[in-house]
Amino acid sequence: MGAPSPELVDLWLARAFNTQDIEAAAAMYHPEASVVRLEQVHGSDIVARGADGIRETMAGYIGLKPHMDVVVHHTTVSGDFALCRSQWRIAGSDKNGKPIEVHHHGMEVMRRLPNGEWVFFIDHPWGADASWAIDRPPHTDGG
Predict the structure, then answer these.
(1) What are the helix (H) ranges across 43-107?
(2) Which of 2, 18, 42, 57 has its CA 20 to 30 A from that of 50?
């Protein structure tokens, strides 16, 4: 149940979150996918792998009763893989009913399935955040 193009994978994931459909969210991932968890949502930022890990990770998001907005800023396709950069925001409620909002800039590798549909293969939800930028070292003049 992938998307018809890599640009739509994030949008279809948002649709699954917004309808609180764990199965539809998990179906947007390749069976061998990896996703970095969010500390604010899952209590750690460890990498979840495989169908069971992905489903558990998606259940954590769906547990927020979320509303997700997402914009895909860039996609580069090479064969059966695509690199995407997204910006997303999820608003919902934590397990105590307290409002929660998380937003980041993600980096994702999408993979085309044999049936032509696209799914997440590697998902780093905060991998393109500005906090990961490296400052340019000061210019030193040799003379």
Answers:
(1) 50-62
(2) 18
Residue 75: partners with Cβ closer than 8 Å, 6 or more residues away: 6, 7, 82, 83, 84, 85, 110
Query: Which residue type occupies 84?
Result: C
Residue type, 60: G
Three-class secondary structure of residue 97 per DSSP: coil
Distance CA(92)–CA(97), nearest Å, equals 9
Q: Confirm whether pTM is higher than 0.85.
A: yes
What's the one-letter identity of residue 69?
D
C-alpha angle 12/103/60, rounded to 5°? 65
CA 63 to chain centre: 16
For 13-44, the pLDDT digits (tens) are 999 999 999 999 999 999 999 999 998 899 89
